[in-house]
Each structure stands twice: as structure tokens, then as C-alpha cells.
Amino acid sequence: MTPNASSYIDFPWLSSPPPRPAPRETLHSFVSRLAASKGVSTSDFYLDMGVSLRSMAILDEEAVAAVARWAGLNAIEMDELLSRTGVPSGNIRMTFRGQIIGSRALRNPEMRGCRKCLAKDAQRNPDFPLKEMVMRGDWLFRDVTICIEHRTPLEVLWTEHTRAMRFDIGSRLSEIAPNHQ
Ligand SMILES: [Zn+2]
Fold first, then answer.
1. Percent composition of the chain: helix, strand, coil (DSSP 3-state, to 5)
2. How far, in Å, from the CA of 154 to the mean position of ligand 1?
3. Could you read off the pLDDT of 35-83 as tens digits, one per residue?
């Protein structure tokens, strides 16, 4: 048995390829899944990349570039993730799906989502649900109140006033995930 084969048995996530962006996924969600695919918490992964939670929360240019580098994302994939996340455009506005809108329509302490969608994601990989659970960008948008797939009301998944902590998606989803990773 080669040393590599042995380490794959000890650390099964090493044998799987990094995740690719999912439809409608936000950048913060993708980073959370990338960290999970490497078997580390989102905050430890930020440390590895040399970026802070705060710089990721405000989508600092260097932080975004670091994610692209670590995940091997091309410009089109990154643009799609950013467009689903909303990018600051001045102090009180954001660009979301090509539209300029008030930041408050996209950013507030209540992070909402559809538990049915998250449960369905988790079923794809029951041993490592955090690699699969996707936060959809439309859930950020205040005017969206219904899951477009399940036609059920979006629920508040967590409330966090500190912006940096609000986007530590992995930590919060780990409380929701089956098996509590
Ligand atoms: Zn749903």
C-alpha cells in the first residue's frame, strides 16, 4: 500500500475533487463547501488562505482573488458566484444580478433559506453534508419569501448582527446539517 492510499483512508475527503459552484449559489456558500471538502472549518480555511472573515464578508478584492486561486475558479464562474451574492456598489447600494439595489434589500441579520432544499442537498452525501448544502443567492433578497422549488415560505435559519459572523456559512450550517458534523 502506498502512503497516499493510506492517507486517503484516514482522510477520505482528500480523494474527492474540490466542489464546483452550484446553480444560484453565493460565494460565501461556495467557500463553506470548499472548506468542508478539505475537511476544515470555514474559519480555519480562511486562515489557510490568509484572508479574514471580515474581508470575505465585504468581498474584499484580495479575498475574492484568493478564493478563485484556491478553488481553481475561472472568471466566468467567479462572476456568477458574485452576481448571486451581491457586490457593494458605493456605501449603500449593491449590484445583484446586474441590478443596482439598496444594500438593505440584500443584507440583514436574518439569514433565510429553505430547509427542504438543504436537506435534499445533504442527501447527496450523507457522510459529508456540508460539502453539498448550498445557500442560494435569491434567499438573500428580502422580496423573495417563497422557495421557488418547494413553494414553501423561506425560514430564518440564523440571525447574526455581526456581518463577518453572518457569512461564516459552514459553522451555521453545521448546526443544521444532519449528523452535526
Ligand atoms: Zn426549497
1. 50, 15, 40
2. 8
3. 999 999 988 999 999 999 889 989 999 999 999 999 999 999 999 999 9
